[in-house]
Write a structure and sequence with these properties.
alpha/beta; Rossmann fold; 5 helices; about 160 residues; 4-stranded parallel β-sheet
């Protein structure tokens, strides 16, 4: 029978950093609230969570990389909202935020979770930040816990 490696949802003892974009803050604050509530619900202590605010989603990866390189965090969550109607350079910002977040994870080995909304309009962003479509901040926090635990299982397995 094959060995199955899984991560669990026990956040006790995990240290998590959350990087949040101020641009579209009325949306990103809701994402942050969802993330913090989910982390707490799964046992991550407030003292083990650091929140760093950046200007916009474009800046998320560089700060996530700096946090990852400290070695103090088991997982990093990047939260932002890129709304097509809000910026003329939607594709560039969304693409750089996405690829940069992935590059941080690959370079450092620290789970770096992409919790950036990329929507066509404000209504979609509202729906995905606590409205009828759930809260991407919350799902990103759950992913951060599970992925950190899976990597720990791999390293100790």
């Amino acid at each position: 029978m094959p060995i199955e490696l899984t991560g669990d949802m026990n956040g006790q003892g995990l240290r998590v950093a959350v990087v949040v974009a101020r641009f579209n803050e009325f949306i990103t604050r809701q994402l942050l609230s969802g993330a913090l509530e989910t982390l707490a619900r799964h046992g991550v202590r407030d003292d083990d969570v650091s929140v760093a605010w950046v200007a916009g989603s474009f800046e998320l990866p560089v700060v996530a990389r700096a946090l990852a390189k400290t070695g103090r965090y088991d997982s990093i969550i990047c939260l932002g909202a890129v709304i097509r109607g809000e910026t003329g350079h939607y594709e560039m910002v969304a693409g750089q935020a996405s690829s940069g977040t992935g590059a941080v994870a690959m370079e450092t080995g620290i789970p770096t979770i992409f919790g950036v909304l990329t929507t066509e309009n404000i209504e979609q962003a509202i729906n995905r930040s606590g409205g009828k479509s759930g809260n991407v901040g919350s799902t990103s926090a759950a992913t951060a816990i599970e992925t950190a635990r899976l990597i720990q299982a791999i390293n100790t397995g």
